[in-house]
Amino acid sequence: MPLLTVPASVAKGAAQSVTLDKSALFALSAVSSNSYFSDSANVKRAIVEYNSDPGNQREYLIFDMAEASPTAVFQVSSHARSSFLLDRIVLEDFDEGNLVIERADLPNGFDITII
Question: Thinking of the domain 4-113, which architecture would CATH place it in?
């Protein structure tokens, strides 16, 4: 299963459900090589950050890692740009500690083009 399951067609102003595959997330080398964050019991949430291209419009998807199959909603206004790039994923623990996984360390294919 892919890291993120994003709808094939995303429309401005419409709420779109995105699913995070926890096993794919914890298999990323940036996570699996970290002795603390590789333990899923230490991770409270994952924040997936998208940034528009061009521009600096940001969209944050917040996944509750206590869920078996975490989902979040991607929704931008009708005025949003049409291209959003997966910028990074931030894992947060229960005491505001975090691990940042930058775009270069993430698999390709999760950018979003809005119709």
Answer: Sandwich (2.60)
Domains in the chain: boundaries: 4-113
- Whether pTM exceeds 0.85: yes
Q: How far apart (Å, rounded) are the C-alpha atoms in residues 34 and 74? A: 28
Residue 8 CA: distances (Å) to CA of 11, 15, 20, 37, 109 = 10, 13, 15, 31, 12
Going by their DSSP bridges, the two strands 45-52 and 83-92 should be labelled as: antiparallel
Q: Cα separation of 44 and 23, whole Å?
A: 15
In tens, the pLDDT along 1-15 reads 799 999 888 999 999
Tokens, residue 88: 């990074």
